Amino acid sequence: MKVDTNDIIQELRRVGLRATPQRCTILQAIKQLNNHPTADEILEYIHKKQPNVAVGTVYNTLDTLVSSGLLKRVKTDSGSMRYDGILHHHHHLYCSRCGKIMDYNDADLDELLNDFFSKKGIQNFSIQGIRLDFHGHCTSKQQTEKS
Amino acid sequence: MKVDTNDIIQELRRVGLRATPQRCTILQAIKQLNNHPTADEILEYIHKKQPNVAVGTVYNTLDTLVSSGLLKRVKTDSGSMRYDGILHHHHHLYCSRCGKIMDYNDADLDELLNDFFSKKGIQNFSIQGIRLDFHGHCTSKQQTEKS
DNA sequence: CTCACTGCAAAGGTTTTGCAGTGGG
DNA sequence: CCCACTGCAAAACCTTTGCAGTGAG
Questions:
Q1: Local confidence band at B144 (pLDDT 50, 70, 90 cut-offs)
Q2: Helix B5-14 crosses helix B21-33 at what angle (to 10 degrees)?
Q3: Residue A87 and which of A75, A112, B3, B11 are 20 to 30 A apart at CA?
């Protein structure tokens, strides 16, 4: 995914953050990787271009970006946190074979769920958002055969 | 939730595990707590009755129980892992105010989703299970918890 | 120029591991 | 009895924090 540095700078300023080189690099990295990376994967990716970015800075920056709404955390059941640079509403496909987390968009599905819960609701709970986790495995290309 | 120790022992044996006192206590604790506890919360709860259970044992046992299918991990976007002793299919309500994770069962919803995806499917992905995360907050004054 | 931000390293929290000893089957 | 399991403590992660120095606005 091609991401323009100027867009990144604008995005940072829009939420009232200083556009430091580190923040630009980190935000750009997540958008380019586009793969729900861990802090460590981000660090590794960044170090190829800018070896002088500190670990603490990456974590601090990620927290800042999440607080400012420029990033989202992705829920996992493994040890370390993952980050998502795609802000619009979407769901996730968790592949049990390759471990990847892929994005899934479906307006029909969202409409179906909205209809369902606007009628029914949930007792003692006010719904603000619904996210679906699909568990399974990818079937593209080399993995077409069954186990 | 009342949980019979003999049932726990049977459950452990059924999957081919030795029914050690530690494993019984840990599995029973999770089922009694019924609150998606962290390893630390489990340890604290257990220590009231059996102070001689080691931290390492709790983690090892939790891993073992998950591998054997007697427990599930719960996805979170916070630092530490949570565990679920309820094995049948269900969804989770994440309360942004009290931080609790509650269970949600809905056969109509599951049927709706099954219908939707059995017709449609997802390109390049074989669905094995769908879990919904509801984000929002609880609206009950006091909860008559029961499941 | 100034203060929010960074680098660095140490500390903090959670989970894993190594090993000698124990008890469940 | 024997070996899978435990206790204990150290180590390995992952993330946060403190502080002096720096550069974005």
A1: very low
A2: 110
A3: A112
Strand C positions closer than 7 A to protein CB = 4-10, 13-18, 24-25
Spatial contact of A93 and A136, defined as CB atoms under 8 Å apart: yes
| C-alpha separations of A132 from A23, A145, B129, B130 in Å | 30, 26, 10, 7
The candidate with the shortest Cα–Cα distance to A103, out of A31, A46, A12, A22, is A31
Average confidence (pLDDT) over A128-141: 93
Per DSSP, the three-state class of B27 is helix
Q: Which of A77, A140, A143 to mutate to test the interface with B (most CBs of B within 10 A)?
A: A77
Q: Which residue has the tokens 């670990």?
A: A55
Strand D proximal to B17 Cβ, under 7 A = yes
Please tell me the distance in Å from B55's CA to the nearest CA on chain A: 17
Question: In A, which residues are within 8 Å of B143 by CB distance?
Answer: 124
**Residue given tokens 């009231």 in the structure block:** B48
pTM of the predicted protein model:
0.91
Q: CA-CA distance, B147 to B137, in Å (whole number)?
A: 19
The CA–CA distances, whole Å, from B38 to A14, A24, B58, B96, B119 equal 38, 35, 11, 18, 39
How many Å apart are CA A141 and CA B42, to the nearest integer? Answer: 44
